[in-house]
């Protein structure tokens, strides 16, 4: 048992003792109940081809998967996603396709049938969303630098069940300091903006990310989305809270305050912003200051299931690590991703 768990247990015991001792205890003296989350907007399922390749990758480079759940090595379905949502009492979720894996530089040797595998995995994700009776929305995915990226986007843009596009710049080998990479990413954002296709994006490409890297994305890429929703994964982090994450969040906040193009429906999603119960309290406090400056209505929940945690596990951890008030947590837990609030209407052709 951790120290924090022990303290929680003692606090609960004391509250029970006090209630038994005096029947006049006021309801407002009782600890606030944990809020119930409406959604988990960062979840992953995967078909057999991705699963087989991940197992091969883990056998060759086990260090890449250190600390990750063994469930990542198993095929998962929409029914599995619904089961973990039900366990957490969560109503809805977003399935972010991992089809980008087939065009990742991490996938060596690169599969000769990369484009076909990408299509099949995206279809697997979309089918799961369509079968969920509206509880799961499905995002397709591509590597924005890959030769098949625009073909894949054009294939899916008018098809039913496609709620958005997932991009993972670290997995894609993206370099924010390379003009050619910026231009390719900007072209994908412009396509998504024209076709009303929301984007969920893991922006940070590496641990040595800089403020200039974040500015390049905000100034040169994000405007292409116009008012179409954009979801910044992991709270703008690499998958952990550090000083660079706070600096990036501040830049998003500046852009929002200026009503910069592309920010009207910008949301910050909090999946794996923290990864254990030892978050630096100074960093956590500074991150929360930026959250308050931006406004809690801009933040949504995600777990990145099954990378490390299930939704119920991660949401409980997150509440212990970020020093928000119960009222602030209630807002965040009740926030819906804009593409759930206003489902996508796919255009018949690019404008």
TrEMBL record:
Alphabetized UniProt keyword annotations: Lyase, Signal
Under the heading InterPro entries, the entry gives:
ACMSD (IPR032465), Amidohydro-rel (IPR006680), Metal_Hydrolase (IPR032466)
Q: Boundaries of each Amidohydrolase-related domain copy?
A: 81-334
**Pfam hit, one:** Amidohydro_2
The beginning of the lineage is: Bacteria, Pseudomonadati, Pseudomonadota, Alphaproteobacteria, Sphingomonadales
UniProt signal peptide? 1-27
Query: What is this protein's record name?
Result: Amidohydrolase
